[in-house]
């Protein structure tokens, strides 16, 4: 905004009486002192200082580049400083600079976020094309948990749009310009957003165990897993079989494998599996093995990969059908005429076996009597700390 | 003394949750009942999970868990359901709807 002409005149007339470092209080004083002058009709502050003029000079010359920002980039004043540095010293690292959203904190380097196109592509593939989260995660190189989160958030966004709620689009746009984003590749070479196949740390692997093994005895990762979970060692024949870990991974990918469990009651848990089986995408091990064995049979490899995934989908579907049938067997759905709700009546068992002798058994229906609720106790975390995909 | 089938409120402020209990009519709401035969969660839930896709409904639902054989037994020996318990037992198909009494 260029300064108004009138205020120019005022400042000029009062310039000899004001020091350059006049504060607001002195300006109000001088304004009241000039009340009797012929400018008493003016409501403009009289402190038209040199600062204001230099500000407008700067805005009209150097600063004019900041008036409209380049989409996809930040619009910080520090850019001028950087420009000077760059002209003096050669080759500034543009890639790294772009990852620093806060010019005051040069130590903070931001990770990339998903671009809008990539986000919508994930949603499209999972919800519209009905691909599994596992497949989409491998194709677009995004973690499975993030894929799940994207789907939930896009669903939420759609619901909000339906309800007519306002979305914070300017905010989203600003964030996308501040931090780097992972684009959606059009030519099929999708850049990796993050590492998708990290091995999670299992609780059972935390203790350090001293376990002496004779040199003459083979001891593999399968055996180590058994030691960690306190399972007895395998007999010789089974141990021989367990060493074919690719077959085991294949079974796992096709979902035709059952896992041994150990422990009693509430302590029952699955025997710890080797790392090949615990990574998020074990099917990629087989893909890699296939590529090493048959480097020139691309189509055959893709066919085998798809076949494995189809097997997996079929087994998953079967398992889900069994789970639903088991659940529905004890559940009755009632939709009364007079109510807008459905009632789901689960048949439970009240007997000595469920309630226990003192009536406080954990399997009995209903809230317990005489067992205080931990709800208001100190240190109870009520915010969910993880989402199971 | 009369034995009643009624609801006992649990849960926190604005998060009601009820045990369906069999108890003496004159005992306090929070006292220990003869038997807990089920629960009722009056807060409706939206069908979102995989299981709900299979059931193919769009209505919000409320969960009731009930030992139906025990409920039939207690009704058979003369336990009197309260109005709200009567409604739930009717939904579960154990008793006829309560006849409307003209005042």
Automatic annotation (TrEMBL), chain A:
InterPro entries: Ribosomal_mS45. Pfam families: Bot1p. It comes from the Eukaryota. One of its GO terms (cellular component) is mitochondrial small ribosomal subunit. Transmembrane segments: none annotated. One of its GO terms (biological process) is mitochondrial translation. Residues 83-102, 353-372 are annotated as: Disordered. GO terms for molecular function: structural constituent of ribosome. PANTHER family: 37S RIBOSOMAL PROTEIN S35, MITOCHONDRIAL (PTHR28158), SMALL RIBOSOMAL SUBUNIT PROTEIN MS45 (PTHR28158:SF1). This is 37S ribosomal protein S35, mitochondrial.
TrEMBL record, chain B:
Keywords: Ribonucleoprotein, Ribosomal protein. Gene3D superfamilies: 3.30.1320.10. GO terms for biological process: mitochondrial translation. InterPro entries: Ribosomal_bS16, Ribosomal_bS16_dom_sf. One of its GO terms (cellular component) is mitochondrial small ribosomal subunit. GO terms for molecular function: structural constituent of ribosome. The keyword Ribonucleoprotein applies. NCBIfam families: S16. Belongs to the bacterial ribosomal protein bS16 family. This is Ribosomal protein S16. It comes from Penicilliopsis zonata CBS 506.65.
């Amino acid at each position: 905004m260029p300064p108004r002409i009138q205020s120019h005149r005022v400042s000029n007339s009062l310039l000899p009486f004001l020091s350059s470092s006049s504060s607001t209080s002195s300006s109000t004083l001088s304004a009241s002192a000039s009340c009797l002058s012929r400018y008493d009709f003016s409501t403009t502050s009289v402190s038209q200082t040199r600062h204001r003029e230099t500000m407008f000079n700067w805005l009209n010359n150097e600063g004019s580049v900041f008036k409209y920002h380049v989409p996809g980039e930040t619009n910080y004043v520090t850019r001028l400083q950087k420009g000077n540095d760059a002209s003096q010293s050669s080759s500034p690292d543009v890639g790294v600079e772009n990852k620093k959203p806060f010019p005051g904190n040069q130590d903070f380097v931001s990770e990339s976020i998903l671009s809008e196109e990539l986000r919508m592509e994930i949603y499209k593939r999972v919800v519209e094309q009905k691909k599994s989260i596992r497949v989409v995660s491998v194709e677009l190189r995004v973690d499975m948990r993030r894929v799940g989160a994207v789907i939930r958030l896009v669903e939420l966004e759609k619901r909000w749009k339906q309800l007519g709620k306002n979305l914070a689009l300017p905010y989203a746009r600003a964030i996308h310009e501040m931090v780097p984003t992972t684009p959606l590749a059009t030519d099929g070479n999708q850049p990796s957003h993050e590492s998708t196949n990290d091995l999670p740390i299992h609780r059972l692997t935390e203790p350090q165990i001293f376990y002496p093994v004779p040199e003459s005895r083979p001891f593999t990762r399968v055996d180590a897993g058994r030691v960690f979970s306190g399972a007895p060692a395998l007999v010789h024949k089974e141990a021989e079989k367990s060493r074919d870990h690719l077959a085991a991974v294949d079974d796992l990918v096709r979902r035709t494998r059952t896992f041994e469990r150990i422990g009693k009651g509430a302590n029952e848990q699955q025997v710890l599996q080797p790392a090949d089986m615990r990574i998020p995408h074990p099917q990629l091990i087989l893909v890699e093995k296939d590529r090493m064995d048959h480097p020139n049979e691309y189509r055959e490899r893709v066919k085998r990969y798809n076949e494995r995934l189809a097997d997996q989908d079929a087994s998953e579907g079967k398992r889900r059908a069994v789970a639903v049938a088991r659940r529905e067997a004890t559940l009755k759905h009632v939709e009364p005429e007079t109510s807008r709700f459905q009632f789901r009546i689960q048949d439970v068992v009240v007997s000595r076996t469920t309630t226990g002798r003192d009536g406080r058994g954990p399997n009995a229906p209903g809230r317990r009597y005489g067992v205080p609720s931990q709800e208001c106790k100190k240190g109870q975390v009520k915010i969910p700390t993880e989402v199971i995909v | 003394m009369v034995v009643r089938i009624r609801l006992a409120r649990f849960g926190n402020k604005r998060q009601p949750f009820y045990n369906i209990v069999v108890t003496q009519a004159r005992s306090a709401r929070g006292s220990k009942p003869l038997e807990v035969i089920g629960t009722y969660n009056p807060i409706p839930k939206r069908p979102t999970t995989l299981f709900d896709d299979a059931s193919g409904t769009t209505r919000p639902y409320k969960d009731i868990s009930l030992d139906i054989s025990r409920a039939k037994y207690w009704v058979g020996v003369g336990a009197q359901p309260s109005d709200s318990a009567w409604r739930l037992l009717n939904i579960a198909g154990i008793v006829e709807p309560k006849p409307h009494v003209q005042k």
